[in-house]
Specification:
Number of domains: 1
Radius of gyration: 17 Å
Structural class: alpha/beta
Helix content: 40-55%
Organism: Hydrogenimonas thermophila
Pfam families: adh_short
CATH architecture: 3-Layer(aba) Sandwich
Number of helices: 5
Largest sheet: 6 strands, parallel
Strand content: 15-25%
Shape: globular
Protein name: Short-chain dehydrogenase
Family: Belongs to the short-chain dehydrogenases/reductases (SDR) family.
Strand order of the largest sheet: 2-1-3-4-5-7
């Protein structure tokens, strides 16, 4: 079966891509930048000429956690484009193929989609939008046999935090591993029913200050 996983170069997306490949899935790796809609649309059309898509995992994401008035307009646009607009557009471009295959869409949202945190208004808006898009889309396409899942991971130890002012604690009970999320994706794909919404959290909440990488 063919799968498209965005964000496959690092973090959770890389772990999901590798887990799917290890279990016999053919992962098609997009080369277009998700913000470039024209290029993305052309690439998807070219892929669909010779491939059906059975699984779409929207995993690419960026974060910023700063006072809202300090965030540049270009950064606001980039965050919305990558975290929310790109998954919605990709889903639109692939939906007919996914319906044909009775496929599965898995959107990697965030714990922030389920709560409200200081300095997270922009990020939360994008991830809440993605989660609600997932839940609403399922009601639309369930009659066509398409499954839609939103996974909302809490703090996960990846390079997501390289450019932020905080990072997971070294306490192993205070963060998730990307391989855990990848295994959950595989498990969700195998069950007969539909997991529409899944939140995963570590046992403890502990973060540390860090210096963002340039």
């Amino acid at each position: 079966m063919n799968a498209i996983v965005t964000g496959y170069r690092s973090g959770i997306g890389k772990a999901i891509s590798e887990k799917l490949q290890e279990n016999g899935y053919n992962v098609i790796k997009l080369q277009s930048r998700l913000e470039n809609v024209t290029s993305l649309e052309k690439e998807i059309k070219d892929i669909l000429k010779s491939n059906d898509i059975h699984i779409l995992v929207n995993c690419a994401g960026v974060g910023i956690f700063e006072p809202h008035e300090t965030i540049s307009i270009s950064t606001i646009k980039k965050l919305i484009d990558i975290n929310l607009t790109a998954p919605i557009i990709l889903t639109k471009l692939l939906l007919r193929s996914l319906k044909k295959c009775k496929g599965h869409i898995i959107n990697i949202s965030s714990i922030e989609a389920t709560k409200h945190s200081k300095y997270s208004a922009l990020y939360t808006a994008t991830k809440s939008g993605l989660r609600d898009f997932s839940l609403s889309l399922f009601e639309e396409v369930r009659k066509d046999g398409v499954k839609v899942t939103s996974i909302n991971p809490d703090i996960t130890k990846t390079d997501f935090f390289d450019h932020l002012k905080f990072k997971p604690s070294e306490d192993k009970e205070a963060y998730l591993e990307p391989e855990l999320i990848a295994q959950l994706v595989l498990d969700i794909l195998k069950i007969d029913g539909v997991v529409t919404d899944l939140t995963v959290r570590p046992q403890k909440f502990k973060i540390e200050k860090s210096v963002p990488k340039k």
